[in-house]
UniProtKB/TrEMBL annotation:
One of its GO terms (molecular function) is phosphoglycolate phosphatase activity. PANTHER family: HYDROLASE-RELATED, PHOSPHOGLYCOLATE PHOSPHATASE. GO terms for cellular component: cytosol. It comes from Shewanella maritima. Signal peptide: none annotated. This is HAD family hydrolase. Keywords: Hydrolase. InterPro entries: HAD-like_hydrolase_sf, HAD-like_sf, HAD-SF_hydro_IA, HAD_2, HAD_sf, PGP-like_dom2. It comes from the Bacteria. GO terms for biological process: DNA repair. It holds the Pfam family HAD_2.
Length: 216
């Protein structure tokens, strides 16, 4: 595919719920944190609604009565996530999509609410790190939906917002893209439903990773 036939030069992916099926693990671990720390247990939907935010941003939302225990809550979650044995496979077709886009000359990047150690670990264990020219985590920039992650990627890669697209599973991803004046593509198989994603006006919402290619 030639450069002129591409709608976008840069494709930026969220990680959790977009490339990797981590939603169940995140929900279970956050609920376990509540039990361990003696806090009201959030519902699955409450946890889904905060996926994509940085942990320091998440904790006051889910546990407003434990403002004095925020650092303990963050550390407890990190330990729960590391020790949890729930499987987190890549979504079917996600690896093939990344490989195909890379081979066709797209510039690929990641913008995730994961902390840097967690993202780096996943890039190594999945073997996908070599395909992404740049990455941003919650350790590197302001939490989504602040556009700092996207703006810094654009600057590093010397790409304009009009030539880039954000792919994510959360309304938080869609809003971040809008804040950066960038197009967004929603995926309905992650944290948020198609209807919720559409409320943030993405260019499209797809049902599988393989559906993304036709929009690029």
């Amino acid at each position: 595919m030639t450069k002129d036939s591409k709608k976008y030069q840069l494709v930026i992916f969220d990680w959790d719920g977009t490339l990797m099926d981590t939603i169940t693990k995140i929900v279970v671990c956050m609920q376990d944190v509540a039990k361990q720390m003696g806090q009201p247990v959030p519902s699955e939907q409450q946890v889904r609604d905060i996926i994509g935010l940085s942990l320091p941003t998440v904790m006051p939302i889910l546990f407003p009565n434990a403002i004095d225990k925020q650092e303990e809550l963050v550390e407890c979650y990190r330990q729960q996530y590391k020790s949890c044995t729930i499987d987190t496979p890549m979504f079917e077709g996600a690896v093939e999509l990344i490989e195909q886009l890379y081979d066709e000359g797209y510039t690929l990047a990641v913008a995730t609410g994961k902390a840097r150690p967690g993202l780096d670990r996943m890039l190594v264990t999945t073997g996908l790190g070599k395909y992404f020219k740049a990455t941003r985590s919650a350790s590197d920039a302001a939490s989504k939906p602040d556009p700092q992650m996207l703006n810094s990627l654009l600057k590093e890669l010397n790409v304009s917002a009009i030539d880039a697209v954000m792919v994510g599973d959360s309304i938080i991803d869609m809003t971040m893209a809008s804040n950066a004046e960038m197009d967004a593509i929603g995926v309905s198989y992650g944290a948020h439903s198609e209807a919720k994603l559409l409320s943030a006006n993405p260019v499209a919402v797809v049902n599988t990773p393989s559906d993304i290619k036709g929009l690029l």
